[in-house]
Amino acid sequence: MSTINFSPGPSIVAREVLEQAAQALLGVPEVHGLSIAEISHRLPYFEGIVRETEATLRRLMGIPDTHVVLFLQGGARGQFAQLALNWLGGAKVGAYIDTGVWSRAAFDDAKTLGDARILATGEGNGYRELPDVSDLALPEGVAYVHTTSNNTIYGTQWPTMPTFAAPHISDMSSDILSRPIDVSRFAMIYAGAQKNAGISGLTLCILERSWMDAARQDIPSIWQYRVQHANDSMYNTPPTFAIYVTLLALRWFEKQGGVAAIAANNTAKANALYAAIDGSDGFYRGYATPAHRSQMNVTFRLATEDLEKTFVAEAEAAGLHHLKGHRKAGGIRASLYNAMSLEGVERLIAFMAAFKSRH
Amino acid sequence: MSTINFSPGPSIVAREVLEQAAQALLGVPEVHGLSIAEISHRLPYFEGIVRETEATLRRLMGIPDTHVVLFLQGGARGQFAQLALNWLGGAKVGAYIDTGVWSRAAFDDAKTLGDARILATGEGNGYRELPDVSDLALPEGVAYVHTTSNNTIYGTQWPTMPTFAAPHISDMSSDILSRPIDVSRFAMIYAGAQKNAGISGLTLCILERSWMDAARQDIPSIWQYRVQHANDSMYNTPPTFAIYVTLLALRWFEKQGGVAAIAANNTAKANALYAAIDGSDGFYRGYATPAHRSQMNVTFRLATEDLEKTFVAEAEAAGLHHLKGHRKAGGIRASLYNAMSLEGVERLIAFMAAFKSRH
Predict the structure, then answer these.
(1) Do B322 and A113 count as a contact with CB atoms less than 8 A apart?
(2) Is residue A159 situated within a structural domain?
């Protein structure tokens, strides 16, 4: 019985990608059999890896020439601080849409660096629902509006990304490459690679060039996007192996048919699981408001916490792993990132039906 | 003919470590055969990995209970900015000993965040020599003195680490674990893992707890060492695979006999190579002042740049890779980090003798 990995992050990586990564870890013919992890990032061979990773990401996401791509470290939390440092200060205001733990954390860090304000929040309803941002009054001096595209903990996701009359920064850590996005509408997109595009330790950043160039230059060089861009993301030693794994993942996405095909598969997986929840006569109860349900993280509850514990334990015994919800939301969470197959989700659905009939 | 890897960083990793890492990348029995790279850092299994990594590092380096260990991201450059952000501001002064490109870069970033001053520099002699710091006048309000223990580009290294009447922060990116260090004498030690202790993407930080707790708390949480420590280095998703490789490297160091045995081997390797340089009747000329020669990065010149190019090309053809010096220093650089064997260095020495007889 194969193992199905519903981990919220770091999370499932396609088997083919893991096998290619392990092979390159043992040795790469192009660098005399040395490991991909023990060569300098300054070698032409590795510079080629970085260029191919960027080119593949550009093709997959349709990133226009107006935007630059950076490969950084420090995860989304690092970006919470770095972006505020770059664009706040003085009378400038960072505007935040609060849709859960991570967007709130982004706001909290920005507050320490300048004037940050929450314009709308879903806190009142336990973040089950995204706030209405259709008629938002932006504060004077707004530098940017910050959103979180998918909320891993509560299992909500913007069905389509909102637009604002200000530069839009979006943390897409948990749904990047999972559906088509019009990159040209964003001043900045950032994402940890460890959910949908590789392993932990790499942060993908996509920035509108003109906006990047207008950021502060009186801050440490390592925290200036402009400096990282001028150095092709190699201002300091990059996480070379993590970049290589992301390249392998991106190549694999192209083989699957690109983002449109991946998105169709993600929709099919999520629809099947939500249908199983909704068709369970209340045995399973979805956490998020149906209109704002995430295709990446499906959150649901059972009648009691004891029953939820039993569910997780019996699922583990059936080879379905890492289904326990985040401590802040409780219940069950099934993460269905890009590398999860429809068959994996069908295994879960079959287990849920059998579990229901037993309990 | 086996390949010998003299790369300055990312650099040589022991074969056994690479093989174990590749195996774990394919699957780990303790987590149902899932890859080490596709499981949550919150699993008890992975928390155990982090605890064992810290415990092994503590044993190897003799880190006392007064000091905490953190596993961070962003490399040494990230620390240049982060440490200054934590301890500068107001009337506080960051004092820097300038021994080359990296210590100067640390100073440059600190300047953007507060009052940073260079107390001594080796710039006047092309960084061949370390400045005399035996009778240094510290400025009023000094928050720390910052040193670089080994200078990768120029090939110099403090024979024994200096002491100061102020908290001492040392960037040991290129010689951590290569020789015994009295950790208790440092307020902070930091090092990228990619030269002596694993692969790129992980930064080791060792901080005196009381000093860490006295740092600024009005800065973004991700940049507070205190917060990272309170969260066992998992305040954000850590670079899980890079941590695992470091654990494998540390276990391998223990098998070699620990830091004392590694240091003896490092001394033997460096002595053999410097003896070959000094015994070449001026055909090879060491760059650094003999008293300040690095055991990690052996830098030398030949009569002309053309001859140096021929040397690098013929060395490559003989399986001796990545010997080209940094563009700022020119010439040849052989990096002999912990995982380099004496046999590897002997191969280089034999090649140097043959090259000399041919040219």
Answers:
(1) no
(2) yes
- The Cα B73–Cα A75 span in angstroms is 9
Alpha helices in A62-184 (DSSP H): 75-87, 101-111
Here the tokens at position A27 are 């040795």
Domain shared by B246 and B303, yes or no? no
Q: Cα–Cα distance between B211 and B92 in angstroms, integer?
A: 14
Total count of domains within chain A: 2
Which chain B residues touch A38 with a CB distance below 8 Å? 5, 7, 10-13, 18, 199
Predicted TM-score (pTM) of the model is 0.98
Which of chain A's residues have a Cβ under 8 Å away from the Cβ of B84? Answer: 220
Q: Is B60 on the interface with A (CB under 8 A)?
A: no
Which of A195, A225, A255 represents a domain boundary (last residue)? A255
Which of the four pLDDT bands, split at 50, 70 and 90, describes residue A1? low
When the pLDDT of each residue in chain B is averaged and rounded to a whole number, the result is 97
- Measured in degrees and rounded to the nearest 5, phi and psi for residue A204 equal -90, 130
A177 close contact with B: CB closer than 8 A: no
Among the candidates A255, A280, A307, a domain finishes at: A255
Task: State the residue range of the domain holding A269.
Answer: 258-358
Give a yes or no: residue A343 inside a domain: yes
B10, A41 contact by CB (below 8 A): yes
Write the DSSP symbol of residue B309. Answer: H
Please report whether residue A351 resides in a domain.
yes
Token representation of residue B208: 């005196």
CB proximity A18 to B under 8 Å = yes
Q: Whole-angstrom Cα distance, residue A207 to residue A233?
A: 13
Q: In terms of DSSP H, where are the helices of A201-304?
A: 209-213, 225-230, 240-256, 258-278
Label residue B329 by pLDDT band (50, 70, 90). confident
Overall average pLDDT of the A102-115 stretch: 97
**Is residue A190 domain-shared with residue A327, that is, in the same domain?**
no
